[in-house]
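Lecture 7 notes: from sequence to structure.

We start with a single chain of 395 residues. Read the sequence below before looking at the structure.
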Amino acid sequence: MYRSISKTLRSRLYAGCALIGFTLALAGCGGGGGGGGAIPSAGTSAASGSAPSAPAASSTYGSNIAGAAAWLNTQQLQDGAILYTSSKIEPYYANLAATGLTKIPAQLPHVRQWMAWFVSHINTGDVWGLGGTIYDYGYSAGVETPLNSADSVDSYNATFLTLSRVLYDTGDPTSQQYVASLKPTLEKLAAAIVAIQQPDGLTIALPGTKFAYLMDNAEVYRGLSDLSYLESNVFGNGANASTYTQDAQLVATGISSLWNASNSTYAYAKSEPNGVLNQSNWSNWYPDATSQLFPIVEGVIAPSSGRALSLWSGFNSVYPQWSTLSNPSGYPWAVVADTAVLMNDTSGVTAYIANTQSQYAAKNFPWSWYCAEGGWYIRAMNQMQVGTSALLADN
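Now the structure, written as tokens:
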């Protein structure tokens, strides 16, 4: 999802779309736009100022990051929950937001507060008969109400696994101690993912649904790989590490089966168990075109690989204006900038940052900006600041 579409037709990782009868609010399934809904409450501490006349210089990254983080702080409730809109909490989007905040040492308490909220809201039983899952929550007048639904199980859980690994890798002792305490919780989340893994290695978005999505599965690959790392390097369980690596490799094999050599794209979804592929068309922004970026940004394929280079070229040939934030969804899709960093498209990233500062930051981040966009945006600027080698390590 950038959510994954599935996410229903997710808006892991943007605007409302319809896919085979599913409504999708993709914020990011991995990607950018949110899924529609109520306009989030405006923040009060975001960066402001006139639009830059040139791409953002490295000297401005720090202040831009601080402004984006300050706005995200206005979206976090006292109990740690991070709002998607003024009336809804979507854990998937909040995971993406918190992952961005890990790049700022002073923000680590905010990250841990969000994670504590997530952990305390994990279902022991759920409407799918599964457990180890988490629902979306409504929010009104200080009251949080479970909606008994979610855009997905696979991406929600997988992005929390990745958040845990990224938090541990900050090297902050308090954060590392906290992640070390999460072993049973993380394994419970992984068990729910594996429970919906199909014989072909792919995970379906939700129990009882029939679609396995490219975006979600890229996030699942990353999440299971990150848990394997934690098992080996933090929890000291080599057997578990090997198991999660094998599970991740099965996902990677499933993703490979989505490749269509005739048009050099991945199918954005696969119907289970009949194996019918929903082929991608570059002319469709979401989920078709944007989903092609997720195997790159989640580390399924190397940015230097011929396949990644072909996908990035194909995306840019149809959407050369992406850095202006002009796309059919109406959302900024900051994950595209993160992909551009990996692909060494410096000019595109710097133009994207300049345009984001002008169109969103200078206006106190109005909707269609939302929490997941903030997380991806901070990550992109941080990696421009510290260098692509660090981004590759992060991924």
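Strands lie at 16-19, 22-25, 88-89, 137-140, 143-146, 211-213, 259-260, 265-266, 269-271, 277-278. Keep this in mind for problem set 3.
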